[in-house]
Specification:
The complex is a heterotrimer of chains A (about 350), B (about 230) and C (about 290).
Chain A: E1 4-9, H1 13-30, H2 32-35, H3 38-63, H4 72-87, H5 93-115, H6 120-138, E2 150-151, H7 154-160, H8 164-191, H9 193-203, H10 205-210, H11 215-241, E3 243-244, H12 246-249, H13 252-266, H14 273-288, H15 293-309, H16 313-322, E4 332-337
Antiparallel strand pairs in A: 1-4, 2-3
Helix pairs in contact in A: 3-8, 3-11, 3-13, 3-14, 4-5, 4-6, 4-11, 5-11, 8-9, 8-11, 13-14, 13-16
Chain B: E1 6-15, E2 18-28, E3 33-38, H1 44-51, E4 59-64, E5 67-68, H2 77-80, E6 82-85, H3 97-104, H4 115-121, H5 123-127, H6 138-150, E7 156-160, H7 168-182, E8 187-192, H8 195-201, E9 204-209, E10 212-218, H9 224-232
Chain C: H1 2-32, H2 39-57, H3 61-82, H4 93-114, E1 130-134, E2 137-140, H5 141-163, H6 165-175, H7 177-182, H8 187-212, H9 220-234, H10 239-259, H11 264-278
Antiparallel strand pairs in C: 1-2
The chains are: A mainly alpha (about 350), B alpha/beta (about 230), C mainly alpha (about 290).
Amino acid sequence: MSLIASTVEHATRSSRIGVVVIGVTLVVLALAPFWGERQTLRLLAEMYSFVALASLWNLLAGYAGLVSVGQQAFVGFGGYLLFWLVIVSGVHPVAAIFIAGPVAAVVAVPVAALTFRLRGAYFAIGTWVVAEVFRLLASQISVLGGGSGISLPAAAVIAMAPTRQAREFEIYWLALALTVVVLAAIVALLRSRHGLALTAIRDNELAAQSNGIGVMRIKYIVYVLVAFGTSMVGALIFLQKLRISPDTAFSVNDWTAFVIFITVIGGIGRIEGPIIGTIIFFVMRQTLSDLGSLYLLIMGAVAIVVMLWAPKGLWGLIAERYGWQALPLRRHLVLTALDKKAGSTP
Amino acid sequence: MPEPLLDLRAIDVFYGDFQALFEVSLRIDAGEIVAVIGANGAGKSTLLKTIAGLMRPRGGEMLFDGAPIGVSPAFSVVGRGIALVPEGRRLFPSLTVEENLLIGGQSRRPGPWNLARVYELFPVLAERRHLPSTSLSGGQQQMCAIGRALMSNPRLLLCDEISLGLAPIIVRDIYARLPSIVGEGLSLIIVEQDIAQALKAARQVYCLQEGRVALQGKAAELTRESISDAYFGV
Amino acid sequence: MTEWLNVIMQGVLIGGLYAMFAAGLSLIFGVMRLVNIAHGDLIVLAAYVALTVTQTFGLDPLTSLLFVVPAMALIGYALQRLLLNRTLGDDLLPPLLVTFGLSIIIQNGLLELFTADSRKLQAGTIEVQTFQVTQGVWVGALPLIQFAVAVAVIGGLQVLFYRTALGRAFRATSDDQSVAQLMGLDTRHVFAMAMALSLAVVAIAGVFLAVRANFDPAIGPARLIFGFEAVIIGGLGSMWGTLAGGIILGVSQAIGAQIDPGWQLLAGHIAFLVILAVRPQGLFPRVSG
C-alpha cells in the first residue's frame, strides 16, 4: 500500500516560459534610456502607467467584482496631492509620490464606506459622483490654480535632477519600477490565501460567501489597496506632465474609459490581460490618431463587440484555447506516491 | 382510433450535461386525466416544463394536436392551448390577485373561462381580488395559480404538485373542484406526490423513476405493489 | 427673504426636469435591472435630433416633439432588441461595460456630426415670460411648464404601470421571466417596449433641456449623474419619490449657487452623499412585497 502526498504547484510549462520572457523583457526595458530616443522613453513610460492603472482596475473589477467608473478620483487625487506637497510644503517631488499612496488609502476608507452602500451599476455611478466631487473641490483650491490648473515650479523640477536628460531617465525608471512593483504586489496578493479568496469571489460571489469567505472585508481591503496604487501612479503621471488642472486630473476619458477599454480587450480577470490590452491600445492609438474623435468611437465599438462576443478578452481566448499562462498563478494539485519501492510514479 | 391530444415520443431532456429524461413516451386524449407520479428527482417537473416549452427536448418528438411543439419559443406555447400551473405556484408578487388572473388571459384565447367564471369556481379569490397576491394563504395561492392558467382557455392543463405544502383538507377541496374544470373537455396532466389523490382523480397513470417511465396503465387496474415497485425502483 | 424664496422656487422647478432625467433611468432598472450608463448621452442625442428637426423643417421645439418622441422610442426599441437584450443575465459586467461603450460612441458620434459648439433651441418669447407668484417672487413661464409636464409624465407612467396591460406585463416580466413566458409574454419584446418608453421620456427631457440651456455633446454624463442622484435621494422603486428626489437635488443646487456660483454642482453632490450616508434606502422607497 502506498501513501499519497500532495503539493500545490503554481507553475506550468507555459508559465515557466512566460517568466523567462518577462525577465528578459524587463532587462531590455530597464536599459531603454541607453538604446531609446526621448520620444520612445516618454511613450514607454505612458504605457507603463496604463499597465499599472489597468492592472489595478482589473483587480478591483475583475477579481473583487467592484466595477468602478470613478478611479480617476484617485489618479487626480495623487496628482493634486503631489502638486500640493511640492508647491505648498516644499516636499521633494519623488518623495511626494510615496506620500500619495498612504494618504489616498486613508481617504479611500470613508469613500468606500459611502459607495459600498450602493450595489452593482449604481455603485459604479456612485464612484463617478465621488470623482466629480473631487474634481469640483480641486477647482476650488486657488493656490493650485483653481479651475485653470498650475504648472510645476522650475525650482521643484530642478530639484529632481540637474539636467533634463537626467530628469527624463529618472522619471522613466520610476515609471518602470512603480509598474513592476504594482504588478508584483498584485501577483503576490493573488498567490496568497487572500488571492484564492478573491479568485473564488471572481468566479462565484454567492458561493464564496457561503463558504465562509469574508467577502465584504476583502472588498474593502482591495478597494483601499487599489486606491493606494492608483494614487501613486497618478502622482507620477502628473509629475511627468509637469502640469495639472481639474479637467485633466479627473478626466473620465483618460483614466477610466481608456483603462476599461484596455482591460476588456486584453482580458478581464486575468493578470496578463491589462498588459496585452495596453499594447493593443497603443498600437491602435498610433495608427488611428489622425481620426480625432472617430478614434474614440471605434474604441467604444470594439469594446462592445469584445464584451459581447469575446467576454474574456484576447488573452482569455488564447489562454483557454492553449491553456497558457504567462505568470505562475494557477494552482494545481500534484500527487506523488510516498512509497517508491514499487517503482511506479503517477 | 382518434389522434391523441398530446403525443410524446421517446423524448430526451438534459440540464446541461445531466440527462433528466430518457426516451419518455406519453399520450393523452382529449378530456382525459393523466397522473404522473414518482419520487423526488424522478423528472416529473422536468416533463411538465418540457411540454410547456420552458425546456427543449434533445431527442424524440412532441406532437400537440398533430403538430410539433418544442421547436417554437416558450411564449408561443400558451397560444396553442397548453397552460402550466407551476410547482410552488409562482404567482407574480408585484401583481394583485385580479392582475395575476388577468395576465393569465393575456393570450386572449377564446373559450368559456373568464374572470367571472374563475371567481365562481374560487369565490375566496373574488373577496381578495385587489389585494397583493402575496397576501393569500397557500391554498388560496394555489387556487389563484390554477385560475391564472385557466384564464388562457387551455385545452391541456398541466398541474405540477398542486398539493405541495397544503393541508389535506385544502387539497381535498381543490381536487373536489377538478371535475367542474375537466367537464368542459379540458385535458389534465397532474404531477403528484400524493399518490392516493392522484389515483382517485386520474384514469391513466405514469410512474417515472430516475427519468424513465417505469410503469403505466389505468389507475383502476394497477396494484399497490406494482406501483411501489415502480416508484422506488425495486 | 424673497430672494431665497425665488431661489427655492427655481430649484423646485428644475427639479422637475431632473425627475424626468431620472424617470427613464429608474423605469428600465425596475423592469430589467439594467442601468443604462448611456442614458444622459441619449438625452443629449434627443436634443440634437430636435435641433436637426427644427432646423430642417422650420418647426418650433414643442411641435418637434411629435417627431423626436417617436424617433427616440424607435431607437430605444431597436437598441434593446438588437444590442442590450444580449447583455442581460446574471453577470453585472456586460450591461455596464456595453452601455459605457455606447456612451463613448454617442458622445463622439455627436462630436463628429455637430462639432463641440454650444447649441440651443429657441422657443420664442415664452423663454422670457415670467409670472408673479407673490410679492417679489417671480417664476419663469418655461420652467413652470416644464415642471407641469414632468409631473404629468410621472403621473402618466404611474397610470401606465399600474392600470394597463402593458404595465402588468412590465411588472410580471420583472418578477419572473420564465412564468411571464408561460403567460404568453415575449420577454424580448417586453424589455424592448420598456426601453422604447424610457427613451420616449428621454426625448421630452432632451427637448426641454435644449430649450432651457446651452448643450453640446459632452454634457451627457452630468445629466446621467443628476438623474441617478434624484433616484437615490428619492428612493428606489418609487416614481413620486423620484420627483421628490429631483426637487431636493434642484433646491440643493440652487441654494449652493446662491451662496457661490462655483458651489452649485458641489451642493447637489453633497446633498446626495448626505442622504447616502444617513438614509441609503432613500427618502421614499417603495415598500415591496
